[in-house]
Design goal:
single chain, 163 residues, mainly alpha, Serine Threonine Protein Phosphatase 5, Tetratricopeptide repeat, three-stranded antiparallel beta sheet, 5% strand, globular
C-alpha cells in the first residue's frame, strides 16, 4: 500500500467523519486514481457516499457503478467500517440501490437488490446487538421502507452501511 495514497485516504476519511463531504469526496476520487489498487475501490465507494450525503445521487451512482465495473471481487478495507466484511461491490450495489430510491427510480432499485443476492455468502455487516446481516437484507429493509417489499425483515437502516 502506497503511504501517500494511504495518507490521502485517511485525510479524506477524517474530513468525511467530520461531515465535510464537499472536501472529502474529491480527495477520495484523487486517491482512487493514484495507482494503489488495494485502496482504489474503497476510495470510489467513499467518494460516492460523500456525494450521497450531499444529495448528488447521479454523481454517486456513477462512482458506485465504476467500482462495480472496474474492481470485481475486490475486498472491503474495513479500517473505516470494521463491521463490514466481504466484497466492495456488495456495498456499491447497496449504495446504488439507495441512490435509485432517492431518485424515485424504484425499478432500478429493485434490480440492484436482485444483484445483491450474489453476495449473500461472501459479504455481510455485523449488527450492534450481535449476529450479522447481508447487504441484500439491508436493501430489502430499505425497499420495504419505500413500500416495495412486504416480507418481515430485521430493522437495519442505511446508517449501517455508510461508513
Amino acid at each position: 500500500m502506497s503511504s501517500d495514497v494511504e495518507k490521502r485516504f485517511m485525510e479524506a476519511a477524517q474530513l468525511a467523519a467530520q461531515g465535510f463531504y464537499t472536501e472529502a469526496a474529491p480527495q477520495f476520487e484523487e486517491a482512487s486514481q493514484a495507482g494503489d489498487q488495494d485502496l482504489a475501490d474503497d476510495c470510489l465507494v467513499n467518494a460516492a457516499i460523500c456525494y450521497m450525503n450531499l444529495g448528488q445521487y447521479e454523481r454517486a451512482l456513477g462512482l458506485f457503478q465504476k467500482e462495480i465495473r472496474e474492481f470485481p471481487g475486490s475486498k472491503l478495507d474495513n479500517s473505516l467500517s470494521p463491521t463490514e466484511h466481504g466484497e466492495t461491490s456488495a456495498k456499491s450495489h447497496l449504495g446504488s440501490l439507495q441512490c435509485y430510491l432517492a431518485l424515485g427510480r424504484l425499478e432500478d432499485a429493485q434490480a440492484e437488490l436482485d444483484g445483491l443476492a450474489a453476495f449473500d455468502e461472501t459479504s455481510w455487516v455485523d449488527l450492534p446487538e450481535g449476529g450479522r446481516t447481508t447487504f441484500r437484507r439491508i436493501g430489502e429493509d430499505l425497499l420495504e421502507g419505500a413500500g416495495l417489499e412486504e416480507d418481515e425483515a430485521d430493522v437495519v437502516g442505511p446508517e449501517d452501511v455508510k461508513e
